[in-house]
Amino acid sequence: MIETDIIIIGAGPVGLFTVFEAGLLKLRCHLIDVLPQPGGQLTEIYPKKPIYDIPGFPEILAGDLIDNLMKQIEPFKPGFTLGEKAERITQTDDGMFLVTTDSGLEHKAPNIAIAGGLGVFEPRKPPISNISDFEKKGIDYMIKDPEKYRGKKVVIAGGGDSALDWTLFLKDIASSVTLVHRSGEFRGHLDSVQKVMDAQTDGGLRLLTHTEIKELKGNEWLESVGAVTKGNDVTQWIDTDYYLPLFGLSPKLGPIADWNLEIEKNAIKVNTTDYSTNIPGIYAIGDINTYEGKLKLILCGFHEATLMVQSAFKRIYPNKNLVLKYTTVNGVNGF
Description:
By secondary structure, this protein is of the alpha/beta class. The chain has helices at about 15-25, 40-45, 60-75, 160-170, 190-200, 300-315, 325-330, and strands at about 1-5, 5-10, 30-35, 50, 60, 80, 85-90, 95-100, 105-110, 110-115, 120-125, 155, 175-180, 205-210, 210-220, 220-230, 235-240, 240-245, 250, 265, 265-270, 280-285, 290.
């Protein structure tokens, strides 16, 4: 059995930063993640995707952010159970929690922080009849290594941050990039939208709005996609090597749904004072939680982790006076 102060379910960026904040309070952490390496979606799905809203980094690749977080928490020596799913949570008579993974390994702690993103993700696939014929043969639902698109013709579909960010990134790598969006309005950051508009004007990419990809053609590999613009029944065929429908991922809570937590809209309801759930001692931080005004941003998850560990400390040491200390004064080793 593994014993610690905080069991963190999910080793993505928010889970990793929790280790740092807990370490400043001399609290030990152990992380559990179903993936075989730390980093969550950032490592598994888009390690080479640039991120623009991390304070102090005008731009940083997702994989590099995880590398930096791992260096940041190294002094606090967290434990990891990787490649295993947190299956069950039970509470002992003394108020401690037992988290058992699918291998039967038990973890014991007075606090649990659920930082599991939104559980298990599956790509949202467009309703094209023969789309499965070209999966891994010209169709990718996520981008792990952008180098595979170097010098290739690429068509991207979507209107969110992922579609916009990858369009801007790949326009300098691919031989041509066409962004297709079924609406005239985008859901991504306004700055990214403006950059896409400017790149279109400058001739760096082609933008088709009010348009959807309806058909696919090819033999052994995808060769072209059929685009239909609203108000026009004529199919416009676009030659391409790759079609990337970046419509996001569909989350499934998995075992979390069976832990007697209060769930709303596929997320865990929390108290914003300390991001506690309806079960004292269990917290939910990052994309897995929901509350009024919730923003699903990594930096918001960092804030939630910071407040959560303060509450976890008080649960372990109810009679100890917790005084906030600044790392600028004490340094990491001073805590």
